[in-house]
Amino acid sequence: MYRQAKWDEPLIFELSKPGRIGFSLPEPIEDVEVDIPEKLKRKKLELPELSEPEVVRHYTRLSEMNYGVDSGMYPLGSCTMKYNPKINEEIAGHPKVAFIHPYQDERTVQGALQIMWELEQWLKEITGMDRFTLQPAAGANGEFTGVMIIRAYHLDRGETQRNEIIVPDSAHGTNPASAAMAGFKVIEIPSNEQGMVDLEALENAVSERTAGLMLTNPNTLGIFEEDILEIAKIVHKAGGLLYYDGANLNGILGKVRPGDMGFDVIHVNLHKTFSTPHGGGGPGAGPVGVKDFLKDYLPVPVVEYDEENNRYYLNYDLPKSIGKVKEFYGNFAVLVRALTYLKIMGKNGLKAVSEIAVLNANYLTQKLKGTRGYALPHKELRKHEVVFSAEPMKKETGVKALDVAKRLLDHGLHAPTIYFPLIVHEALMIEPTETVTKEDLDYYVEVLKKISEEAYSNPEVVKSAPHNTAVRRVDDVLAAKRPVITWRMYKQLKEKGEIDI
Ligand SMILES: *Cc1c(COP(=O)(O)O)cnc(C)c1O
């Protein structure tokens, strides 16, 4: 019997019926003696007993409680949840790609090395950098790699006093975190009214202690830092380096390059810009690119191509290398997906990505602008994403950005990023991406407008949302402070009467 998944969907253990089976095994061979030490033998094995169709239907039902990029629009600003073409999965899952082993001899994995080398050439061309490491497993891992390279560079030159990294207040939280992890003191500078780096504040912040500046451009407000060349001049003049947080290149692909803006070190999130399924913790890839004068500090190994012998090899001979930042060569399957995507999109396709991503963000901005309760702080023209503020709504009706996000779920939509960047109160950070239709955008705006009307006429409906989802509003403080993560924990707490769900 079909029924829609509910929050109290039975666990597979609860569906179990003794004696019911969902497998068939060959008859055991009688005369084989298996000598398992007594202490290793299980006394009992508690497995649910169900038929195969029951198992399939159970998990299909659970999957219907989920929402992903294959379900619909997922405008999670900064994080870029765009549609990932299925061909990427096909190539990454090909046995010749999936079943190779990192310990294999170089001669037997020439194709894998070629994939990595070719991906590096693409990234160099797209970003204007001179060399890349593909090793970092995520954006944050890339940032850490990048700031460690900046650190190694200054130490190498005897400039040991350079212990400060400057970060604007619109930065992604990983920027100050990475700088601090690499041993730097973090100096935060404010943004100006337009939502860009305040040049005067930057001038005042730089000194002989400046190791570098970390910047996202377009920044997390979706605004392009127009003064980037001036910013680069100020930092370089003070002897610092420029770090580009290129987690999200969707606003500039094929248009401008961080290398040409004056950046010395960058990271790129392949999982955001070059279409790898992510969320829920990974896996991702955050390759780091550097200008020529920093290439000796890259993690080992780097992939080289010996043109004369048409041979790819791994180069560990970088005496100044900061070392390894992840085991082996990075998340290889993610690299394969990215190269597949790049080759299929080609130069013109990549340009179209940024053009449509920017068009979509601005279309949505213009349609939503002026709606009661949502303010649009800072400059109006955006790149790939826009940040609205629900602060007027909160002041006038008590409905917060969180409530708006929850109410969107009732309409079968995913919420945008909320409460980030920190400089916008009650932030709703919307990144539609290039993979949505005009109808998707119209519907999203229509629902946001409807929620605004509700907030002013019947705020309780919004405050108590979601109403139509399998799981209603969760207590996220309790979930974080006292997570119940196994069925056994749940059973024990329930028996003791300590939880009532
Ligand atoms: C996502 C993101 C990061 C961090 O990337 P992870 O892969 O999640 O570690 C850093 N900066 C910006 C601007 C981002 O959007």
UniProtKB/TrEMBL annotation:
Record's catalysed reaction(s): N(6)-[(R)-lipoyl]-L-lysyl-[glycine-cleavage complex H protein] + glycine + H(+) = N(6)-[(R)-S(8)-aminomethyldihydrolipoyl]-L-lysyl-[glycine-cleavage complex H protein] + CO2
Enzyme kind, highest EC tier: oxidoreductase
GO molecular function, one term: glycine binding
CDD domains on file: GDC-P
Documented EC number(s): 1.4.4.2
UniProt modified residues of type N6-(pyridoxal phosphate)lysine: K272
Ranges for domain Glycine dehydrogenase C-terminal: 354-456
Residues covered by the Glycine cleavage system P-protein N-terminal domain: 33-304
Name under which the protein is recorded: Probable glycine dehydrogenase (decarboxylating) subunit 2
Family the UniProt entry places it in: Belongs to the GcvP family. C-terminal subunit subfamily.
Organism superkingdom: Archaea
InterPro entries: GcvPB (IPR023012), GDC-P_C (IPR049316), GDC-P_N (IPR049315), GDC_P (IPR020581), PyrdxlP-dep_Trfase (IPR015424), PyrdxlP-dep_Trfase_major (IPR015421), PyrdxlP-dep_Trfase_small (IPR015422)
Subunit structure: The glycine cleavage system is composed of four proteins: P, T, L and H. In this organism, the P 'protein' is a heterodimer of two subunits.
